[in-house]
């Protein structure tokens, strides 16, 4: 429950703008954000257009702290009710739960059941090795990619040590290719200063690794004083130049390198184009990249040529172990880390020149490229950039980077970030290259698109600008279903093409597009020379090519398999060259064709078929070779053809789920599975309706479900989970079996086997053994096909180990309410293995087991575990009053348990031979003497905690002491306010100076039939353990019934004093103070002749609401508060009185009583 003292703020992001920070108040409910409650709010803000995402933030407004688990948010535009957006969250917004964050960014969805799966990113932080480089602060990170950001996540609670590696996980929607991260700390702790070396992020979905170098301080009193940094992909560590010889030449080079490492001033001039609405109000930034340099570079061209020739020769002279010789190892390629600059204070208005002075390292010049863009914020963020001019004041040279394109989502190709190359870099790269782009649109329903399509070629040296595919040379209407389009483009030379980026602007009706593949043909006569200029094997070939200037141009072909839908919301889709498409598993078809028995019915033509299913259709299939006739399609003949093609309809899977036969194994939750095959996996599938049982997933039952979904090939793994809904959602699964048709694309004899089996429909069975509990907190449970539970024993061939016999004696303590009706389980733990969970079902001594003061005995059989070292014990909390007080547990093993050596391979063989032949038994004792509640979970106790004989005698003597019981009368006044009453079950606990009673339920009121009604006073008579003067009262309720919140005015407790003998008052266990005992005795003696029972009254003023989430409310009595006040005033005088009694023999005893 969130509570009224917590503020929730909402920010709405649309395509045109974003709203302000909106405070959510005035819900349709009196108490906002209650458990299993929907709250409706109305907020007023300017129109933001179609909503893309929202941000929810939580702030603490009061002193109370409430936990809050948010399920989802539904946003409706009241001016246009058809605009309804769904935001799925399913996470805690609480600093002590989940990932500890109290703000979250949620992406939009127009489908209420469309829950986007999360991707796990593994983040590794490397702390530097400088002095005091570790930190005590908390670390936060934000991942940013081509498809969005993760929002800020807390990944470390500190401290981080020097030269340490810290790993954490970040779950988010898929962000595409990561481009940058933002990392910071909160400057808390004794030593918050932090030197960050680098951050490595592993993308588990795309299996890519991103490295973000930093090598800077995040500290207020070091370097630039920043606590937050944005790290871009591709940052390199500045190399450490070290020289072996310190001669004059090396010292001069070292001095030049030191000059290059110094910062110098650059002037950046940004020219906004002179077009309508060309200016922007967004925040503009640029990333500057230096050119790769050669550490052994010489300005003399002749020397360069000779060095290249020498290096080409030395490449052929490599050592046998594959390492280069010394001469080549000095020729290192170095890269400078990029610089990101945010241009603050610029106007960027139409036709305006904005001039900025920045500082970068001197060696950054000349620049290789600039990545410039904006954040899309503000009204009218679109920007037309003409060019960028960069001038190095130390070199007194300039570079020009032309753009002449829009950086706007609704203009040109929709990009708001572009890569610009300088004019001299373009000249040095030679003439532009010619590319032929061949695109195949898939032959599926509605595969075509009318949107404008763009691509970008990413090569080994650079990448092109965005290229629009405007005019197809083959078709008038491009990108139609099943068609092949060709485009001829001119772009910069990029070297060998490694990746392709493709996207569209979503224009036109039905813009979603299904692409089969893309082929790029590069016509380049210099690329081979450029790529291989350092290749030693081709050195002489290059010289020969220079003499044949009329040699034909070479064509390089690059294939990119997509076979997927591309939507505008997908953004830029990136695919590597040569990547294989995610092929659907092939189906086998046997086609029989009967030619009619009429004149001239046969044909010699090539015949084709196409199979059309409920989901899609196959490609054209030629009927080539008949399995029955040499001459196919003859009059009156029947021909048979075996074909392979895509599945055109859904696959049918029969899923059998066996729920274990253990206590509370069933569940009412919604269960989901996902089938993972050798080539793909299905979407999330819900097991809705069992074909065998009305109530599915009951204890010991087998349920069967029929699922229709895509073909996945042979099933390798199964994912299963549930949503935790319903009461007692925890579920114990024995196994899952999946039956499918055995039409396997890897089986060449499928049809032959079908004939041998008389055409019976042959099935294949996949079995997944779980034998475990599945909770909502476990998330997705993944199990491999054919998994077995006793892998170790099965591998060693020792499956026939006989069961060991155990006799278990359980002693329930002789205290009030010590017994339990819950189901109790134990687990025996030996030195090498442990038994399965064993339920203590039937006691050999008592019909009602686990009663107060009783001893129960159970006979169990389980796998031998060796000498029992530890015992695990727990219960399921079932029944009324499930809390259980256990005195001890004794286990008598059925045979002598010998110690097992880790290297003793014959241990189990010897156990099999000697099983039941050795009459020796061994007793193991586990002393608990404690309460066990369901909330305690598994309680673990070690063997050998038994006490000595003397202690045992003392314990036996103490256990025989009779506990004093007394009678209590409790009056409860419910407040006279609206909805003050409750139907919940109320419990109290009375606390004295040394001990407290058990939990007491206020069950039956002696004054009212309906207890706890508004303004009523209820009275309850209880009997419980005597605890002395009542100083505190604990009260709580279980939240059951409608409107369980309860407002209490006061509670009075009357304790009957004339209920036990004076001898009982002298019991050492009570330890009550002497003054109270004397006063109590006087009251009893004074009223003994009158025959009246004397009661002591204790008043507790509460005057507050109590609900289930408050837990236990503790209130001090008015009498104890007055008593403490009097004692504090007289403490000094009393201490002096005791200190002056030097002749008092009982001085120390009196002082102890005073203390």
TrEMBL record:
| Bias kind Basic residues: ranges | 543-554
State where composition is biased (Basic and acidic residues). Answer: 792-803
The UniProt annotation puts the region (Disordered) at: 241-263, 296-316, 525-554, 784-803, 939-964, 1061-1094, 1117-1155
Question: For bias kind Acidic residues, which ranges apply?
Answer: 525-537, 1061-1075
Span of domain PLAT: 1-107, 119-232, 264-421, 433-580, 651-788, 804-922, 966-1084
SUPFAM superfamilies associated with the record: Lipase/lipooxygenase domain (PLAT/LH2 domain)
What is the superkingdom listed in this entry's lineage? Eukaryota
Name by which UniProt lists this protein = PLAT domain-containing protein
Source organism per entry reads Helobdella robusta
